[in-house]
């Protein structure tokens, strides 16, 4: 970048900026790579000729940007507290560039007066790439016996095919295997078919051995209803949310939860990242109120499990939910 940016960016770091930026890079419906920024105004600005500048750089430090690979700028028209906007520009990455060496930078700057930089954001390209879209699903109320359908798009920004498997809890359906060709996107249907009048609150887990495709968790939620159901019959999601402490943990963790009934069975079970049942901790009727149970990091045979990601799952009356836990050794 130009030397003047170094001073202005360092000065900006401690400034109470009038805006916040969230970056992402994704493929659009036409298969074009898009560099995008979502901006929220937290203060007012009065300058004119304001721009949002998108930069891909091969080197960055806390002192300055340099070795600009490509950049573009678009008009920035937000000025007032509370305004939000999404800004984007097409992005072309040279095949010779190594994504591990690239950073994504966004500057919001006035090109009039003192050319003040109002805000800046930076992320390495790998962290900025939006592999999944959307990032979560809320199917709302769906009658028992009926099906609601949406689509999850998986994007592959790399030179090797991505292949993998999935884990889905009952009520939701997603293909057991997926594959995405290099530099392409692939959409898959996800369906919600409630079998009971309960709240379903969980994750779809996508797993792959691809170097850059880490395990992806997609939150999914939906409610099974009948014609006579009403919101008064549904439990409070936030109240019943599973939690565990500590997390990450070693060698044991305490799982806390709430039950809303003195007459319905509560089951707390542990699953590994591949969806395999590890152990059932509770399977009984509990009194209404706050409860906790300790998982000591062993399976149903009493053998210590390996380090990694695990899920606790609760089914209590008309509520089902999962919670991610990390075992460290």
Question: Can you give a write-up of this model?
Answer:
It contains 3 helices and 23 strands. The protein is mostly beta strands and 329 residues long. It folds into 3 domains: 3-128, Immunoglobulins (Immunoglobulin-like); 131-234, Immunoglobulin-like, CATH 2.60.40; 236-329, Immunoglobulin-like (Sandwich), CATH 2.60.40. Strands 9, 11, 13, 15, 16, 19, 20, 22 and 23 form a 9-stranded mixed sheet that branches. Strand 19 (265-272) and strand 20 form a beta hairpin. The protein is elongated and about 70 Å long.
Write a concise synopsis of the structure shown.
With 329 residues, this protein is mainly beta.
Descriptive labels:
329 residues; mainly beta; Immunoglobulin-like; 9-stranded mixed β-sheet; 4-stranded antiparallel β-sheet; 23 strands; disordered N terminus
What's the helical proportion of residues? under 10%
Distance between the termini: 44 Å
Low-pLDDT segments, ≥5 res? 1-14, 228-239
- Whole-number total of structural domains: 3
Helix-and-strand structural type: mainly beta
User: What would CATH call the architecture of the largest domain?
Assistant: Sandwich
Q: Regarding CATH, which class of the largest domain?
A: Mainly Beta
Shape: elongated
Mean pLDDT: 81
The H-level CATH homologous superfamily of the largest domain, spelled out, is Immunoglobulins
What portion of the residues fall into strands of 2 or more residues? over 45%
């Amino acid at each position: 970048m130009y030397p003047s940016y170094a001073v202005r960016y360092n000065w900006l770091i401690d400034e109470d900026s009038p805006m916040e930026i969230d970056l992402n890079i994704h493929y659009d419906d036409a298969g074009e790579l898009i560099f995008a920024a979502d901006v929220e105004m937290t203060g007012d600005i009065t300058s004119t000729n304001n721009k949002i500048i998108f930069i891909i750089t091969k080197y960055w430090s806390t002192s300055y940007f340099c070795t600009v690979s490509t950049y573009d700028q678009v008009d920035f028209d937000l000025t007032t507290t509370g305004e939000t906007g999404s800004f984007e520009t097409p992005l072309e990455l040279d095949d010779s560039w190594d994504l591990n060496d690239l950073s994504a930078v966004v500057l919001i700057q006035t090109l009039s007066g003192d050319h003040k930089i109002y805000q800046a954001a930076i992320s390495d390209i790998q962290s900025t790439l939006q592999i999944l879209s959307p990032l979560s699903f809320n199917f709302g109320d769906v009658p028992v016996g009926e099906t609601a359908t949406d689509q999850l798009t998986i994007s592959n920004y790399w030179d090797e095919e991505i292949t993998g498997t999935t884990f889905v809890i009952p009520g939701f359906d997603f293909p057991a295997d997926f594959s995405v060709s290099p530099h392409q996107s692939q959409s898959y249907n996800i369906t919600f078919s409630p079998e009971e009048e309960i709240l379903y609150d969980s994750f779809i887990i996508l797993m792959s051995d691809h170097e850059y495709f880490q395990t992806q968790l997609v939150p999914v939620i939906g409610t099974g209803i009948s014609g006579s159901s009403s919101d008064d019959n549904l439990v409070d999601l936030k109240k019943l949310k599973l939690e565990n402490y500590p997390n990450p943990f070693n060698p044991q963790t305490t799982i806390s939860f709430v039950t809303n009934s003195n007459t319905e069975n509560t089951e707390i079970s542990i699953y590994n990242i591949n969806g395999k049942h590890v152990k059932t901790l509770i399977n009984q009727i509990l009194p209404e109120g706050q409860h906790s149970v300790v998982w000591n990091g062993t399976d149903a045979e009493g053998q210590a499990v390996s380090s990694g990601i695990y899920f606790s799952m609760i089914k209590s009356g008309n509520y089902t939910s999962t919670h991610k836990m990390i075992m460290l050794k």
